[in-house]
Protein: S-adenosyl-L-methionine-dependent methyltransferase
Organism: Ilex paraguariensis
Amino acid sequence: MGSVSLKIGDGSARFKRATLCSSTVNVLMLFSVITTNLFALYAFTYSPKDHHANAVHHTHKNISLISEQVSLILSEIDSSQKKLTQMEKELLGYDSIDLSRPNIANELKLFLQHHQLPLGKDSRTGITEMVASVGHTCEKSMDLLSQYMDYKVNGPCPDDWSFAQKLILRGCEPLPRRRCFPRTIPKAGLQSFPISLWKNVSDKIFTWSGLACKNLECLNSKKLNRDCAGCFDIVKGYETQRYIKARGKNDFLIDDVLAMGSGGIRTGFDIGGGSGTFAARMAERNVTVITANLNIEAPFSEFISARGLFPLYLSLDHRFPLYDNVFDLVHASNGLDVGGRPEKLEFLMFDIDRILRAGGLFWLDNFYCSNDDKKMALTRLIERFGYKKLKWVVGEKINGSGKSEVYLSAVLQKPARV
């Protein structure tokens, strides 16, 4: 196989020379480290006596400068926090109303006063004072707002509900509370429920001040809006057939829509519901519906109430005062139109989505599409929410001038989101 030869002599000599060389390098490295450390120690510890006082002086001076800089930084932080707080208050509106202006009603000043919490800062919310709830846009209508708050305390409120509505339509919502008694109108002739749903009552139980019409007959002779043409005739008019008999393919029947609801339909919210016919039809099917409306050109709220239904006096610029995911169905027609401004419609749609439960239905009923751009914008917006299209119909109707108009009707189901 072969043999192994070990030459002890030569190998030992080479090993001794390598060991000696390595030991010499180690000694030199150790000497270098020790010398370097000694010089470093000397450099850090040595200080001439004549410079000692100057060194101490410079040290104190540096500490003083640092202290001044820290104080300046803390002062800037405190100032920034105050500015931020002021900006937040101005955005909220309650600090932007100048109560020192002339002709400001005393009741408005009293209502808008800040009231400190009796026990100081609240640990849960962080607030230190109670602030009046009033719309920040009211500041733009201070003269009207002051007139609204100019009344006799503990006396009768001025007959100014139309004046208050004007403020609401200008974005002054919520309005400040008042300490006066509203005019009471005897509600004689009201019928018991459910007879009240389809029974006319006397014109005398409604408030007509500020309105062009002074009776129901006048209202029924007018087209108040696209969803209310003769809508106060609940005995012989079209309202008696609405939602149970279709006049076109865009008219969905209530029973068909209710059959689409998973988990059942028990509660609903109607946006711009006219005289309350949608809520009345739902009430016949044991579904509770709240109707959001304003009294524009007609006493809608009082009429809905006279039918034994629930009116909510609210503009579409206001966040719905309702909790999340509470309704099984939301119904909207042309009341959904917010002046053609896409960003306002987007905010409104998100609020509708907020109050509608998962699996609930959004019924878009005969929404007028003035042009293809408006239809496409609404379609794209709806698709962003990921709703399931249970029914989707785009149809045309002939208006009073003989022109064709495009309407969109749809039943959409809200998805469950994580």
Notes: The chain has two domains: 73-182, 195-413. Residues 1-22 have pLDDT under 50 and may be disordered. The two ends are 77 Å apart (CA to CA).
